[in-house]
Amino acid sequence: QVQLVESGGGLVQAGGSLRLSCAASGFPFGSFVMSWYRQAPGKERELVAQIENSGRGTWYLESVRGRFTISRDNAENTLSLQMDNLKAEDTAVYYCHKFPRDWGQGTQVTVFS
Length: 113
Prior knowledge:
By secondary structure, the chain is mostly beta strands.
């Protein structure tokens, strides 16, 4: 059974940093593309960052490129998202995603000015 458990969300002042983690189990983690999505109140869920199974290829939403870094540890079955220089518009629930249809429960990130 696939399990994705996010942690690391919280309340942070604009300009600050947070590191999200996703502990994965129940599948061969190193064989799958992994992603972070987010959903802000009243908005659709959007893809924030994605990393291919080897970790060498990454993709970022334009608005977070240069501020967020996605990474993975295939030995530890862990996906991470380092978020620096956070802005109020980054406030959302952040979800870990395993292609194609598996989701974590989400972790809230709130950025205040």
